[in-house]
Specification:
Helix content: 25-40%
Distance between the termini: 34 Å
Order of helices and strands: HHEEHEHEHEHEH
CATH architecture: 3-Layer(aba) Sandwich
CATH class: Alpha Beta
CATH superfamily: HAD superfamily/HAD-like
Strand order of the largest sheet: 1-6-5-2-3-4
Largest sheet: 6 strands, parallel
Number of helices: 7
Structural class: alpha/beta
Number of domains: 1
């Protein structure tokens, strides 16, 4: 269970704009790269954003976009933040190390799940002299209540991947889309 996500979800009751993305894209392939001229660092969620849930490789249809993102935000400017890999549930950081070796991108080590690890992200990019201000960070993810809320808490730029690799049957994911999807 994601206690951080559950507790932070109550913040939506008094500030619904915390879940408002700066940009909505259909799929990871629709991500503009570079994201915009002010963005110096990018956080990406893994599961159902650029990878099939619980798999540690880039979804085949997104490989070209992934390589372009790595080229545009090299080294420590691109960071994977997952509620599985790199979290306390990842014993000895085995999954994080495997992802780093196979994808060539660092995975944040954090003790609090999203959106509660926002200070760890800002510290990571500041420590590596990537950013001067959290507004220079983009957070790309498929969940409004975690990824986009975290971006807004940090005063960063949230990019919502509306349709993940697979359609989610998760009740919270369906609720997010029901409440926050733009009306056609």
């Amino acid at each position: 269970m994601n206690l951080s996500g559950t507790l932070n979800a109550f913040r939506i009751l008094y500030n619904p704009s915390l879940c408002k993305p700066g940009l909505i894209i259909d799929t990871f392939n629709h991500l503009p790269v570079p994201i915009n001229k002010h963005i110096k660092a990018v956080v990406v969620d893994k599961d159902n954003c650029f990878a099939f849930p619980k798999e540690n490789k880039v979804w085949c249809e997104y490989e070209n976009k992934w390589e372009l993102l790595k080229k545009s935000y090299p080294g420590r400017a691109l960071l994977i933040v997952s509620n599985s890999a790199g979290s306390n549930e990842d014993l000895d950081n085995k999954q994080a190390k495997f992802i780093e070796d196979s994808l060539g991108v660092y995975v944040l080590r954090h003790s609090t799940k999203k959106p509660g690890c926002h200070d760890d992200i800002v510290e990571y990019f500041s420590h590596h002299n990537i950013i001067q201000d959290p507004s220079e960070i983009a957070v790309v993810g498929d969940r409004l209540f975690t990824d986009i809320m975290m971006a807004n808490i940090m005063n960063s730029y949230g990019v919502w991947v509306k349709d993940g690799v697979v359609k989610s049957n998760n009740i919270l994911s369906r609720l997010e889309k029901l409440i926050f999807s733009p009306k056609e």
